[in-house]
Task: structure prediction
Amino acid sequence: MEYLNYIIIGLLLIFTIRRFIPTKGVRQITALKLRDELKDINKQFIDVRTPGEYRVNNIKGFKNLPLQQIMQKAEKELSKDKEVIVICQSGMRSQNAIKMLKKLGYTKVTNVKGGMSAWRS
Result:
């Protein structure tokens, strides 16, 4: 029985760590680097926060595509030929969105570390 507790704790630890490790093959950029990237018309910019969060504060050039709608709308609204730069509030939802985009076959994906919180500071 004691071993079962260790196994459960170990599995929970592995699950938690995997949630915070960046996805392989994903470029990470800072909010400062994002300022340069915004000038590139060959890139797609998506904000995966809720529509309410997006309305309150957003970056010009970013399209709102909420995390909950990524799987349904990505292939209609995003090109797989262009790099997709993803932002959220802190960087967690964008990591999840990037994992979904990778499953859909998007290969050129970039996460903005720290999200909108880093953009404002």
